[in-house]
Structures are given as C-alpha cells and as structure tokens.
Design the sequence.
C-alpha cells in the first residue's frame, strides 16, 4: 500500500516537473518567435527605407542628367546647373549612384575648365574600395587620358601599368595612351612598335585597331630613314 502511495506521489512530481518544463520552454519558444518576427520586421523596414532612398536618389540623378543634356554646348551655364544635383547624389545616394554621379560631374567640370576638380573626382572613384573594380579602372584611365598632353610622363606611365596588365578590361586603351606618351617623349620607334601590336590585338575594338594602324602609317611616312647603322667605307690602305 505504501509503495503505491509513494509511486503515485513520484508520478505526480514527474508530471508537475514536466508541466513546469513545458511552461518554461513554451515561454522560450514564444520569445523566440517574437524575436524572429521582430527581426523580420526590422529587415523589411530597412529594405523599404533602402527602396525609398534609392527611388529618391534615382529621381535626383535623372533630373541632373536631363539638365546636363539640355545644355547647348559643353561647360555652359545650363550644364553647370546639373552639378549641384550630382553632388547631392554623390553625398546621399547608394554606392552605384555615387560613382555614376562622380563620373558625370567630372565630365561637366572638365568641360567648364575646372580641371583640378575633375581630376580629383576621377582619383576619388579610383580610390573608392566600395566602387565597382572596372569603374575604378575606367576612372584611372580617364585621369591619364586627360593629362596625356601635359602630365608628368613617368607618373602617367605608373598609372598605366596596372591598366595594361593582361586581361585588364581597359588594356587596349591603356596601350594606346602608353604609345602616345612615348610619342610625346620622342620615342617614336617604341611608339610605333606598340601601335603595331595594338592594330593586331583581337581584344581591341575595330575602331581602336584602325586608329592605331592609321597613326602608325602616318608616323612611318613622316619618320626620316635611320642611317645610324650604315657602314663607312674604308679608304684603300
């Protein structure tokens, strides 16, 4: 009889412990569900804010594009009215829009004669680790291209080094600039060698290949014959 009583008490205690555990774990499960629901809500709110911000940025960006394209000539007052709008996108917009705004702003201020600001914008794009790598390379290429006539040749060539590596997306255009820098320095033979290679480079556009071939032919027609290797006839001894 006593054993039955103790057994019944033990079963009641186990049942109570199970009910207590069920209440504890039930509370934990409810809290977990609430936490997950809250996290999803925050995530959806962030997505909504990002979409709203991207939409607002896009509106400003395309308004700036329209203003810039409405100008009658590069660098005029109508075009320059787009600069503050591009600056707003650069300041407040997400990465992709920031980079595009910097490119357009650089082109506008260069045409208006503010070369220092334009070069600074291209440098900023090139140094931006968050920007697309190909766009960073393009910014560096434009930085060199706009100084090919009067920039420091050694400095320009140092920038072209990474742009000219095999497989680089801007390699053919970088090689063309490299040849032009050689011409400026008076290294005609080296420039012609690079232009000849570029004219046969299948990775270059047809327009670029034709331009390289045409410039190489022009240099050939205007280069005096090299007589440095001619032999001197000895007088009879």
Sequence:
């Amino acid at each position: 009889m006593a054993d039955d009583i103790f057994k019944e008490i033990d079963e009641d205690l186990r049942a109570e412990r199970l009910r207590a555990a069920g209440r504890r774990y039930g509370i934990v499960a409810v809290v977990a569900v609430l936490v997950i629901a809250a996290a999803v809500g925050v995530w959806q709110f962030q997505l909504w804010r990002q979409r709203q911000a991207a939409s607002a940025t896009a509106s400003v960006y395309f308004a700036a594009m329209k203003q810039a394209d409405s100008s009658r000539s590069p660098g005029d007052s109508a075009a320059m009215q787009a600069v503050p709008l591009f600056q707003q996108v650069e300041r407040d917009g997400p990465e992709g829009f920031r980079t595009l705004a910097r490119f357009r702003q650089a082109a506008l201020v260069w045409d208006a004669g503010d070369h220092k600001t334009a070069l600074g914008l291209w440098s900023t794009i090139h140094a931006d680790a968050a920007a697309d790598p190909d766009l960073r390379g393009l910014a560096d290429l434009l930085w060199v291209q706009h100084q090919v006539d009067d920039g420091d040749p050694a400095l320009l060539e140092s920038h072209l080094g990474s742009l000219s590596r095999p497989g680089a997306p801007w390699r053919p255009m970088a090689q063309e600039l490299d040849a032009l820098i050689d011409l400026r320095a008076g290294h005609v033979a080296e420039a012609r060698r690079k232009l000849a290679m570029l004219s046969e480079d299948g990775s270059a556009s047809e327009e670029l290949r034709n331009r390289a071939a045409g410039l190489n032919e022009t240099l050939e027609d205007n280069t005096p014959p090299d007589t440095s290797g001619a032999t001197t006839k000895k007088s009879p001894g």
Notes: The mean pLDDT is 80. The chain is about 75% helix and 0% strand. Residues 147-223 form one domain. Residues 2-69 form the longest helix (68 residues).
